[in-house]
Structures are given as C-alpha cells and as structure tokens.
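Hi all, posting the design record for the shared folder.

TITLE: backbone redesign
STEP: 1 of 1
STRUCTURE INPUT:
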C-alpha cells in the first residue's frame, strides 16, 4: 500500500497522468491474468501515449479555430454525391495532400457543404497531428490589418506556420491593395510546402475580379489554384442542404 502511494506521488511529479489514472485497473488486470512484467509495463506506457495523443489533438483542434462540430462522422455522403464523390472525399481524408503541400479548391453555390467538407478535412488533419488554422478569408485579412491588436503576432505566426490553412469564403468581396500585399506574402511563403483549402461561393473564373491589380491577383491565384485538387460545382450539380431544413430536420 505504502509502495503504491509512493509510486503515485512519483508519477504525479514526473507528470505521467496516463500511467497514474490507469494504474489500479492495470494492476488488477495484471494480477487476474497473470501478465508478465513486460506486458504490464507496455500497457501502462500505451495508456500514457494514448492520453498524450488525445490531449495533443484536442489542443490542435482548439488552436485551429474551426470548432468541433463539422466532421466526416456527421457528414451525409449520399447528399450531393455527384458533386462530392465519396471516393474523392475519402482520398482527401487521408490528408496526403497536406503531406505533399498541395491545395484544395472547393467552389460552388451556397449551402452545398463546402465549409463542412473543409472543416472535416481540417479535423482529419488535426487527428494526424497537423497544425490547422481556419478563418473566413475576410476576417483573417481584417484582423491582420490591425497590427496593434493583442494576438496579432500570434495569429500571423499561425497563418504562416499552419500545415493546413483553411480560407473560407475566398473572393467574397473586393480586396484592398494592402490586403493583397499581405495575402501575397502569406501564399508565396507557403507555396509548395504547406497546404491551403479555399472555399468560395463564386466561380473560380470570377476570382481575379476581386483583386485591384490583375498582375498581383494572377500571381496569387496561380500559386493557389494551379496544381490544386479541385471540387468545382455548378448550380445544376448540387442542392443546398439548408433548403432541406425547411421541411425536414436538416439545417
Ligand atoms: P457552404 O459552405 O457550401 O455554403 P455549408 O458547408 O455551410 O455550405 O453547409 C450548410 C449546412 O448544411 C451546414 O450546417 C452543414 O453542416 C450542412 N451540410 C451540408 N452538406 C451536408 C452533408 N452532406 N451532410 C451533413 N450536413 C451537411
Ligand atoms: Mg461556406
């Protein structure tokens, strides 16, 4: 008894909560099943590993700012399947695109699931220990113009360093020159190394129109779009999930 007490104190001071929390259960299990020393120790170390992984993923999810709600577990793959084929989504879900530093462009009419898919992919990336940062394109540029804001430096670092940057509602409005300069810096620095997902309600061919200078706009779009995986959906190909909510229980 005294030994267990002493052991627990050490586990606490060594910060091994996964071992500490599971110690009693594993001891009982080991006695009942006459586990060998090595098996017993391996189980406890695995407990510690699992708990640390879980904590790390929770931290990455919180830091991503994308919320916890929109995942592939809560995604109806049968809805708009033509626009978003299940096999394509499942391929993207492996997050190989993040390892390859490739981008994804998801464009199409409102309500069809673009943001849901982007967040679900972000979620998958966090589960694979990737740093994700989600923001509406508009609010990212607005926030990053306020250089005196507390948290400005932190946000800037996150935007540059994220393994996966999700810019929701890209090309939503006309951009200012200073915003375009900042966007160019971000995109150019990340190009080919880190991934970006863009979602937009506007057709890709209209995107250039939001840039005051077409040369700068072209340079940014070229980096973002060429070589990206594209899920480009026309109004005929997909329905809004929100509309169903008027009659069914979806929203
Ligand atoms: P978009 O970004 O294309 O405008 P959203 O991704 O915001 O659309 O989708 C609108 C709403 O419908 C959200 O609440 C989203 O979770 C839900 N939704 C869209 N498509 C699906 C789907 N296939 N399965 C489950 N929920 C969906
Ligand atoms: Mg959206």
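Okay, here is what came back for every position:
SEQUENCE:
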């Amino acid at each position: 008894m005294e030994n267990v007490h002493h052991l627990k104190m050490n586990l606490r001071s060594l910060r091994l909560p996964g071992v500490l929390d599971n110690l009693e259960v594993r001891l009982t299990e080991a006695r009942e099943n006459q586990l060998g020393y090595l098996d017993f120790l391996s189980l406890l170390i695995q407990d510690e590993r699992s708990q640390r992984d879980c904590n790390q993923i929770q931290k990455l999810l919180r830091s991503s700012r994308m919320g916890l709600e929109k995942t592939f577990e809560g995604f109806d793959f049968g809805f708009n399947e033509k626009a978003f084929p299940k096999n394509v989504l499942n391929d993207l879900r492996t997050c190989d695109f993040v390892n390859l530093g490739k981008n994804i462009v998801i464009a199409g009419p409102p309500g069809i699931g673009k943001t849901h898919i982007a967040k679900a992919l972000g979620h998958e990336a966090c589960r694979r220990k990737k740093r994700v940062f989600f923001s509406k394109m508009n609010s990212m540029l607005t926030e990053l113009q306020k250089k005196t804001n507390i948290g400005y430096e932190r946000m800037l670092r996150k935007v540059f360093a994220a393994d996966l940057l999700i810019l929701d509602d890209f090309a939503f409005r006309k951009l200012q020159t200073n915003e375009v300069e900042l966007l160019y810096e971000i995109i150019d620095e990340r190009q080919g190394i880190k991934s970006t997902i863009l979602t937009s309600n506007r057709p890709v061919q209209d995107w250039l129109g939001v840039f005051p200078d077409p040369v700068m706009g072209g340079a940014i779009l070229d980096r973002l779009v060429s070589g990206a995986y594209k899920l480009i959906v026309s109004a005929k190909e997909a329905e809004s999930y929100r509309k169903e909510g008027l009659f069914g229980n979806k929203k």
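COMMENT: Residues 114-115, 168-169, 199 surround magnesium ion (ligand 2) (CB under 6 Å).
Let me know if anyone wants the other runs.
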